[in-house]
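Minutes, structural biology subgroup

Action item carried over from last meeting: produce the structure token record for Outer membrane protein with beta-barrel domain (Gelidibacter sediminis). EB confirmed the sequence was re-checked against the source entry. Recorded below for completeness.
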Amino acid sequence: MNTIIKCIVLASLCLIIGKTQAQDTLQKNQAELRIERLIQFKDSITQHEKASLKSEVETIHKRFEKGEITKLQADTLKQEMAEKRALNIENRLSIVDSQIALIKRNPEYYAAKQAIDTNFVISIGQKKIMSFAKDSTPKYDIRTSNKLLFAIGFNNTIMDSQSLEDSPYEIGGSGFVELGWIWSTRVLKNSNFMRVNYGLAFQWNKLTIKDNQYFVENGKETALETYPLNLKKSKFRTTSLVVPVHFEFGPSKLKDYGDRIRYFNDNQFKIGLGGFAGLNLSTVQKLKYEVDGNSQKEKIRSDFNTNSLVYGISGYVGVGDFSIYAKYNLNTVFKNQDVDQRNVSLGLRWALD
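Output recorded by EB:
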């Protein structure tokens, strides 16, 4: 019995010592990792301040060329900007050096307070079998963000030699909806003035047909014909999956947090120009009428000789998340028609973080 107790005590001591040594090793590794990242951050500080100085000097030079300031004033401003950026580098590097010195003296500080949050570790003695860790060290600069895209508005078609006033579709009753997810990537390294937005979106284009008409497939052609009964509703809808791409231009606000920088477009003017391309997924015609006083609904799913490939140009202008949005399909709605029809839409667009 005494032998069993001694073995249990000895095994417990081994586990405690092994666990303590593993924690010390983990803290050391975390401290070293943090120091490496801070050293890399020092390089990015110098690069960022130099890039900002270059941009400021170019702005001053342009003011001099336009005659807004004299050469003496330009040289003075350049000197002031250079001194400011040099002082920024000195102060910011000093802060980082102090953080490095603190971590070197207190490696356990980083394990308790800083970036790596080890949620779960499986180990035997000093040997770590498995770990799940989250690195919460902020990234210095994030060039790509993502947003929810939603747009809604009016839709109709443009026909050759025919104005919208003569359209066979209701202007107020016809509409579109667009829903998707987009990514926004900064094009320039040290400026957020130009971004490229791209993603995936569903487009629903609906046409409400006037004058008791509906679409009929006649072989390879699709044409409007008068319905034999009195139609209460006659709607035609296409659903497409597209890839929208826009180059977006507009100012941003830069915020420097010391260990990271972020650009914000909140309440800032923007304009986007680009287009979209994709596939038509489905086509549906909905009819509503009465037979002997009873309301009847009919939903017809067919190809209707619509074009499978959809593509067009689009653009928007607005402030912050909100903008006015317009798109125009370069592809015709139907194939093999005497008069080509192309969807045109105007509405409101939201890109929500």
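Discussion: The radius of gyration is 32 Å.
Next step: EB to file the record with the rest of the batch.
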